[in-house]
Amino acid sequence: MAVNGTKTTENGDAILISLQHPYEGVVEVIGYTDVTEGEDTSCFYQKSFRWGTDGVSYSDWVELSDHNLK
Length: 70
What we know:
By secondary structure, the chain is mostly loops. It has one helix and four strands. The strands form two sheets. Strands 1-2 form a two-stranded antiparallel sheet. Strands 3-4 form a two-stranded antiparallel sheet. The mean pLDDT is 81.
């Protein structure tokens, strides 16, 4: 198992992407775009997100989808 920056080598590896500074004044997220290489039916990423308003407390992790971003 190895994670190197933005690359993984095995199922079960994880990459956490986070912001250094929060987006402020966001009222609505309409959609998102992500680009991954090498995914197939046996090797794929489970994409999820969580959100918070104070930098301390956060929501539970939920599936990253247009529906859940609304």
